[in-house]
Amino acid sequence: MGVQSLTVACGALALCLALATAANPGFVVRITQAGLDYAHQHAITVLEKELAQLKLPDISGDFRIWHVGKVQYEISRLSLSSFHLPYSRISLVPGVGLQVSISNAFAELDGNWRVKMHFIRDHGSFDLRVENVYIKIHLKLGSSTSGKPTIDTSACSTRISNVRVHFSGKFGWLYNLFHRAIESRFRKILESKVCESVAKSVRSELQPYAQTLPVTAKIDAMAGIDYSLVAPPTVTAQSLDVDLKGEFFSLAHRSAVPFPPLVLALPPDHDRMVYFGASSYFFNTASFAYHAAGALVFEITNSVIPKGVEFHLNTSTFSAFVPQLENMYPHMEMKVRLSAPSAPFLNIGPDGLSLKPVVDIQTYAILPNSTLAPLFLLSLTGNVSAVIDVKSGHIVGSLKVGRLKLSLKRSDVGTFQVRMLQSIMNVLASNILLPRLNERLAQGFPLPLPDRIQLSNILVGFHQNLLLLGADVQYQPRGRR
User: Fold this and answer.
1) Are 139 and 99 in contact (CB under 8 A)?
2) What CA–CA distance (Å, rounded) separates 208 from 148?
3) Rounded-to-10 torsion of CA 90, 91, 92, 94
4) Sign of dihedral through CA atoms 25, 29, 33, 37?
5) Which of 2, 82, 170, 211 is most buried, by the most CB atoms less than 10 A from its CB?
6) 427: part of which helix (H) or strand (E)?
7) Which of these, 149, 213, 144, lies nearest to 451 by C-alpha position?
8) If 0-12 CB within 10 Å is exposed, 13-18 middle and 19+ buried, where does residue 185 land?
9) DSSP one-letter string for 346-413
10) Which of 288, 300, 146, 172 is nearest to 229 (CA)?
């Protein structure tokens, strides 16, 4: 009984450790059957070209013909003129991977023959047609130690139903007598060569292309995104899901994110070829990274106020609301420093993206010797909503500011009515701070896309803890733009 209890305890401990090390994704890419079908079309085109370049070995041997005797033959310079894959499909195999089934494929090739019978020697050419070729390919999906996707051939089988050989030349009739033996040898050679070519094509074409999916994407001089796989891709009956870390990080110093990603569940949408699911964790790590990099600090002086805004950042303007400034710092220019005391957190719900940032506003008077005299420190809170779109493979956005609320945290110039400054802070927020932020957000953050992929027919949807982006894809072969 003690041994049994120990076994149960060890099993429970192992389960806890497994759960502790399992990481929820911050970002999920879902490829639907429509997306797989599109990728499959391009892959089959590549495979056709690979099969058309098959190198077949020479064939030689001998046979006996009644009343004629022993005949030695040699077949050489086998050359494929075409290999066609007219019917094929790709299927999701839950828990296993992908299966590609090809039927009714056919190929044509030609070559030379040479025969020796007693003292008779002759040579000629032949034509061969392979019909009703059936190929079944199993693809295994995984992830490398660096977090990149991997793909390999786990099984391959080829069955050729019909091989027809026609020999021409003076003694071509001899070859036509033993065509069954020749066709049998051709069939075995071709069946093995086809699967060799499939495995080679997966290794040389498909796997390197899958590796172009970025593990990290540099955004700017301050931050990047970690798009490494947190687990091998998951295959279900409806889709192929790829769980990514989906975490922003500071390029100067990467530190651990102080909050975990929540469980991310995508709805069963399937109208588009691909879906991107970005959790609130994804966006909040962006806020954390940029805050850690010191990017959420803005300094405003008269020089950055747009010309169309009739507002001057000086003590003369502010003395209408803080009268004591006129006596303490008359006719002096001012500086306003806006900073976030902590990284603002974004919420995603069915109504969209929203956040309630807290901003410290420190004001200074610029003295004649260019030193700064602190005036007062305000706290600004408000409701901010975000509009999201996708452009050129990037998530782009813009912010809209709702009601703002001011409070006084510290004053070096005495007491005053804080609410009187509300209109000035609205001007600073709407005409200076917001345009700066939206200019950066308009540049966007790159989506995890492999090379030469463009998105179209974009859908944007919101769910609890999830921004869902749907799109169709278009592959641009090399040499095309």
Assistant:
1) yes
2) 11
3) -140
4) negative
5) 211
6) helix 422-428
7) 213
8) middle
9) EEEETTEEEE--EEEEEEEEE-TTS-EEEEEEEEEEEEEEEEEEEETTEEEEEEEEEEEEEEEEEESS
10) 146
Q: Is 3 helix (H, G, I), strand (E, B) or coil?
A: helix
> Distance between CA 425 and CA 416 in Å, rounded?
15
Q: Which two tokens stand for residue 257?
A: 């994110």
The answer to whether 61 touches 283, Cβ cutoff 8 Å, is no
Helix 179-201 with 33-51: angle, nearest 10 deg: 130
Tokens of 399: 């912010």
